[in-house]
User: Fold these one by one.
Assistant:
Number 1:
Amino acid sequence: MLRQLFRSTRCLLLVLFIYMSLLTVSSPAHAGIDKYVRQYLRVIEPVALDLDGQGQTKEFSPEDLSAGKELFQNHCLNCHVGGATLPNPTESLALDRLAGATPPRDNINGLVAFMREPMTYDGTMESFFCRRVPETWMPQEQIEKLAAFVLRAAQKAPGWGAEQF
């Protein structure tokens, strides 16, 4: 009787282990997609983002935005947590603030241009709050993914760039 109970318990534990293993394995379709990108940016398929403010768009995959998020975490998060701008809180990464900059930064090319050559919000002088990102440090493809993450977060992420988040 004890032996039968032991076998039943072992069998139950084995079934439970297999079931839990199946639940924790990611599906291949979502393997390279960051959970934040799926949940808060609402991206599970490629999205078209404004390229130049002139009607042209460029598609970015969920994996591109996940790579952009990683770049943001590694290089921008210290000053821009949650889309805020800690050195100058009036110039957040909220969509309306990006659009109001001179030149506008609410498109991929505008954000890339700013990161390559940071200027003050009114565009009159070089900004010393943000560091310059030369091509030798971050190639065009990478910086566009970073810009795409920032732009999509400004569009969709709850509380992104808000005064209180």
Number 2:
Amino acid sequence: MSLKHINPDGMFRSPAFSQGVLVDGPGRLLVVGGQNGVNADGEMVSDDLAGQTRQAMRNVLAVLKDAGATQQDVAKLNIYLAAGQDPNEGFAAAAEVWGQVPTAITVLQVGSARPGVLVEIDALAQVPGQV
């Protein structure tokens, strides 16, 4: 299984994300459901975007690890920010936990189904191994 980061000539190149990711080879698809800044008891860990983002990224990493994958196996992240939040604050906090692992991402500002939730992150990954 391999991921090829697609960054065509003439398009913006960022160390933080890829324009596309091609997943190739044997493996299993892992769909990580929306993770937010809650701990194992379901309690919100912080009132601010940075704290919630760090926890949401830790939660994504925990799901990946349990399935036998790492952030290197993630093809796509979707990041949903509560309307009015500063994406730069979220990106900085995410990088603290995620590291400099480029992947394809989409960031949207939306309303939340749960009061107080400032960020939700889901992911698509290919878990290495035989199908």
Number 3:
Amino acid sequence: MTTVLPRTSREVRLAAVPEGLPAPTDFTVTETAPPAPAPGHVLVRNRHFQVFGGLRTLLGGAAEGTPVPGLHPGDALYGPAVGEVVVAPPGSPLRPGDLVTHLLGWREYALVPVAQCLPLDPALPEPAAGLSSGSAAYGALTRLAGVREGDVVLVTGAAGGVGSLAGQIARLLGAGRVIGSTGSPGKAERLTSELGYDAVLTGGSWRERRDGTDEHAAYRAFSAQLAQAAPDGIDVLLDNVGGIQLTAAVDAARHGARFALVGALSGQLAETGAGAAAPTRIDAFRLVVKGVSVRGYTGVDHPDVEAEWTGRFGAWLRSGDIRLPLTRFEGIERAPRALWELTRGQTFGTVVVDLPGHG
């Protein structure tokens, strides 16, 4: 059976380095010739790809020290994607029609090395679930924080792709009380009513200072909310934000608390700078006398997590023990808008661009 190859493909390219947070005008959606099949590679028709806040750092020219390359004007963007194999080389374990995950999203067709394609777990109830950021939350909570029965857990940035799963995972691992933070009352209500958070704090957002809120006043307000939600302190922090929320968490830590740092949105999504720094004031004396551990989490340091997470995630989804909130955009032309809304705090959960049939 002869495979009919596509005539054209579209991809999102960086048109100009953003001044501040990225805007749709910083990108172009370009029609190109599709990539030609090549030895050792599979041609994949993408069905869905993820939009994530970390792109801000890659776009700002400050990716040095990160495990992935930065982006320059004219480059196509990239990120996690789910697609269907169109052409596979002889001897490959993949076949046309197979669904795979890879890291060449932001385009309709991708030519991906076979070794960089993973078959999509058939246990997942829908393909877009393969784009969840839950492995970071799961790895941080199991490998770094070691959630124990009855722990009080704080998740900052709880309405994002990582945070919206982290609270649920912490509960499934035995946490006794789960507290989140987010930037709006509407998101806070969804976190408690839909995702099982016991309490959600809405102060302390780095975005508040766009309106002139004094940093120290924002810190005091957030600390007061945290003290009310966790009067006896916290055992575990899964931090996606940094900034004054991390400062307040140190103050609220119980003896032997374990902090896992997954993101730094206070810097990555700041209106100024390149998104590669998130300075935070931490009382080192409190860390010492309380015996608090603080560790950063990256998936490359824990290669065993992905397979373990995928198995547990599929089972939890099928049983209804966990929910995957998605904000969806249809069509590659809407991808720049999706990034605009995400970086301005207008999305909830994992942000996915769905690609309808093309070719």
